[in-house]
Automatic annotation (TrEMBL), chains A, B, C, D:
Pfam families reported in the protein's UniProt record: Acyl-CoA_dh_1, Acyl-CoA_dh_M, Acyl-CoA_dh_N
Family according to the record: Belongs to the acyl-CoA dehydrogenase family.
Domain Acyl-CoA oxidase/dehydrogenase middle: 118-208
Protein's name according to its UniProt entry: Alkylation response protein AidB-like acyl-CoA dehydrogenase
Residues in Acyl-CoA dehydrogenase/oxidase N-terminal domain copies: 5-82
UniProt cofactor(s): FAD
Signal peptide: none
Alphabetized UniProt keyword annotations: FAD, Flavoprotein, Oxidoreductase
Length: 379, 379, 379, 379
């Protein structure tokens, strides 16, 4: 996993172009694939790297230092494989998913062999509320037919397969998940045109495909979000790592520019760098601690994950804004890394769980309440 | 001057396109011209609107609410005409500028008749340090020959004339100012590609022109920045007005989006709007007070101008960042006014005098020192 | 009213002792009385100073610079007299209060003659909710009998008379107000022992008194808070002035200490002073604008008053905290003005309407709602 | 070391009185002594608890949660014993201090047996600049005579012995350290009357004593600050732990008060608690990481220690200020734990290294400079 650190300068060099063109960071993923990092969360018995979550967040942090968009795309892949790798077999067994272990291993082995997975869960105007999901599947001869209109699919058009959630047409309460290979019935609608994190290409994707039985994740209907239920850290903490990396990149760039322009003696430059360094380091410490607790199955893990997300989103936004003041007016020029980092970083606190939601969640917890039950709903 | 208020919705509608294409807001200036606002700072005796500085800052504020870039371009024009209109005749007289009143009135009348003036003072790598200026002029038969490479010329290519500073080739200590009409020898080099305030088109402009004697501002060499010496408010306070307008536009847009999406009951939405409203209103109050003192020739005017600049730059950056959290993830989509306002606003504190410089200046003043003599140099 | 400015150094000298002992600032009020300032809000026809609200806030600001506690006590007096002086006669007439003008003038003349009035409205555990008020009065031969347990009575034991609200025993919906002279039946229970604003002596006061008919304010029962309904600015904006004065005093003291200890060249000292100066000046500008709108009867006055309160409370707390960092560790020593100002200032945002309530109120207003109807209740 | 956690409620109960009276928290130290915690930093071979620095900071954190003043006094003792316990024998050997190991063990054994050590290094107007130190010692028959006027001696009058630095009268460049038992020649001048951390009793102490040779720490002259040179973490990081504990205590108290008064549903209460919880947890994570690096002898340890100090000082001040807004106006009443915690917490950023110094130090480090060489001097 040390390769990621070494990739950082090369990713940075390519980041400008991908941001400008909102293009997929192909070369970044070629490097990640070649380094075997698509198998990062896959256990050693399947020839993956078998990373812990604690190890993963450091990888995500360095990806964020290189190119935040690459980090976010990779995150979805790591989330799919990481959640599958850590989902307890017993859960699947209880649900009667006899094929689960075999099917899971197939997916994980695919990752080791270089398949990049994307997640197609969200729908426009639905957010993460499953109850409003319009995507449907029907049992047909030889498998399933799936029609789905999904949004915010990071890596759209470049993933090798998509994890798609849909309802059973006849029994809408049953929501199942399918791994859909990138084939003819998968159409990308290039809707992603944003201020920041442009290169994630989180476009809309339309699915109209017939799938073999093996495409049903876990081999049984109704296993939704195996991952999400047991692994909220994949929805919250792994984003945090990327944004902390973005913030660190801003500090590094601002320091470099200040040195180049002989501004290092300016007290305002020093104090801005110093305070930013402390804030970003604090977010990183918090996240690493959260990740260790996740690995240990500690009941406090959730609380630390929410803390890390709040700190990361805020530190990323504040730090990049301040680092532009270090560099001065030249920081707004296209091509200056700081202006891209500033735009990318602003997305962090807005990604669910937003900073305001995190703060409310943590406040309820501090009051001794049950934050999952009573915290301010938002997305 | 009420017309400006009514222009706001139309300016807003056009702002997206000008930002995307980094194109000059032509229609905005057509409207301003038709409303006679190019003559805003010209005295009534020359058929101008004869605005006070206090009245002007409200106009600039509303331009900022409409399109910050328009406000900044207009600002340069208002600065040239405003400084000329208020420069004491005695100063010119002392300098032996017998033609000064007539020449000044010509320029001012030009504005009333619809000429838009731009300012071409800065040079790359020189900042505002006159001592490093490379632009030169020579006396020639029938006037002057001028060669100059200028940077950060807002409205480049669209102004009717440019106020250019240059040194006398034979006597480099003499810096004079010329009003150069937009003719063949004026070439725009489209270098302005920035994160924010894209539509100001503050490109590099190269001058290689022969000018009649009447082009010499004030009719006498060596009158540099008549304006700047006596009118620091044009360099600092008028920017502030535009950025406060940008911040207000963000509040208005966020409130509109929150209402449309039924988020008005969310406490975090309300508290963000409330705190932003207070901060922006405070900056506006401070600026208006500063402008009144400028008009009154009050010795405290400078201090209040620096306060206003600091507050405006910070309030603009903080407010637009917070308003994006009100609107949520949709705020980063291209086309959402908030993402443009966020990028535009970030430029405020970076424009000289930067927030850090303002804070230092004010700190020295609070300590009873002479801030012009001892404050931290920076740009 | 210029005398107040000159009183500042003398008030400051006495402030330490009054804070330490939580004692009433007698000498301050002797000076205020001698300068005729107890009649500040009384119209000229009654030989008062006839100050506008705009003029008053400057007086309150300077009192805050001298001793915040004196400012808050004076505020209650100014509120009583100011509200009476500006209450429209028509309102009283409608209510059948024939004697109203005469009785009002008596009270106002009392102030001109040197009577200090205190306000005894709040009750423990009741806050400002009139519906839970336990104080009662009964009509008796020759007037009224009143029994009341009041809390937070600034100036308790030193006021010449108290404005007390109570319910009619027989008709509890009728709440009336009485001006109760400081006599035997008025007992002070010294409950005020606080971190800040110690010298206000806002103790509990118990009333068990028989009053002549003339004690009934306005001469008619049921006129409650004539003032409060029409004059929210007395409940919110006038506090703001005092706390802005406290914040300014902290800047002045920090600058003085920095100069004495040769710290003026330290950049962190300068930037802290500069930013504090801008924030405090902004709050002051906002408040002055609010006060002008109050005087003009402008419908926007309320919104500006809430803005001023929010800004004042936050600026006072933030500024005094930062100024302690200017002075360094010596600032925590008893006797250093900054440690007192820091404790006093922290009370500002906590006094109703708290900063959080103000922010919510302003947020609702920014959303186009009716903040009085829908804003977060709190006190 | 778990006992400390259990002591917290009892320490809290006693804290009010010690703060009010600025009295030494005797019962706290009786408990600490009985739990063997005075030997916390003493190695197991001498029957101490042999804590790592990482373990120590958790103890200091919990002491801070109980009573910050107790934590700070204990800190000095832990610093003396911890620095001695970890000082490399080689250093002493090089200096020819043959008796060093034996003498060191005596001091450490004293701690295990219940002796509380205080530090008497600072002098008025000298700060930590050894070059201006006025304390002197002379060799006399049977040992040394020492005269010293020291300031900021936490635990003055209650320590069993004082670590005192002084110059050799004949050779003022030689600064030595003595462990002076609390005897007749040690006089406490009760100068400590402060806003916060009142119970540390950090009074001036005057020494006029004759000492046996064994009082010379390390048995050799010129070993100054054995500790400080090799262990900056004792000067910076251990304070941080106490202030983080103070901040956590404020959150706990505010949550308790909010629940008691049914304010838990208020969004502003929840968001304040949530954000404070994240900030304090981040400071704690950072400190714990710093402490682990100290134990590992990692070269990055210093940087993390400065980060922790900056975060702790700021989080303590900000958190306690915000928690008062959670509790509302009742928080300013004497007896409310929050008002004491607020006053205590404000001292954190002011204690060397101040937050401004830390920020500058970290900024220089971020720029790749040598912060010890070039950072802004201050104390």
């Amino acid at each position: 996993m040390r390769e990621v650190r070494q990739m950082v300068p090369r990713m940075r060099e390519r980041a400008f172009e991908h941001d400008r063109d909102a293009s997929f960071p192909k070369a970044d993923f070629t490097e990640l694939r070649e380094a075997g990092l698509l198998g990062i969360m896959v256990p050693g018995r399947l020839k993956g790297l078998g990373a812990t979550f604690r190890e993963y967040v450091d990888v995500a942090y360095h990806l964020g230092r290189g190119n935040g968009a690459t980090g976010l795309i990779f995150n979805m892949h790591a989330g799919v494989t990481g959640a599958l790798a850590t989902a307890p077999d017993e859960l699947a067994e209880e649900l009667g998913a006899a094929d689960y272990p075999a099917r899971r291993d197939e997916i994980l082995t695919g990752a080791v062999n270089g398949s990049l997975y994307a997640v197609a869960m969200s729908e426009r105007g639905v957010g993460s509320r499953l109850s409003k999901m319009t995507s449907r599947y029907t049992r047909v001869d030889g498998g399933f037919h799936l029609t789905a209109d999904k949004a915010f699919v990071s890596g759209a058009g470049y993933a090798d397969a998509y994890l798609v959630a849909a309802r059973n047409t006849e029994n809408p309460d049953t929501v199942s998940q399918f791994l859909v290979p990138a084939t003819d019935g998968v159409t990308v609608d290039p809707t992603w045109d944003t201020m920041g994190m442009r290169a994630t290409g989180s476009h809309d994707v339309h699915f109209d495909v017939t799938l073999p039985p093996a495409a049903l994740v876990g081999g049984v209907e109704g296993i939704t979000m195996l991952a999400a239920q047991i692994a909220p850290h994949w929805m919250v903490a792994s984003y945090a790592a990327v944004y902390i990396g973005v913030a660190r990149a801003a500090i590094e760039s601002a320091a470099e520019q200040a040195n180049q322009r002989n501004l290092a003696a300016l007290p305002s430059v020093r104090t801005r760098l110093g305070r930013a360094d402390a804030a970003v380091s604090a977010a990183l410490s918090t996240l690493r601690h959260a990740a260790s607790l996740v690995d240990a199955g500690d009941p406090d893990a959730s609380t630390w994950v929410w803390r890390a997300k709040l700190l990361a989103g805020d530190a990323a936004a504040d730090t990049t804004a301040s680092m532009m003041e270090v560099a001065g007016a030249s920081a707004i020029r296209s091509g200056n890394p700081l202006e891209r980092l500033f735009r990318d970083a602003r997305c962090g606190a807005l990604q669910p769980a937003t900073s305001d939601v995190c703060a409310d969640w943590l406040g309820v917890a501090a009051l001794g309440g049950d934050p999952y039950a009573t915290s301010e709903p938002r997305w």
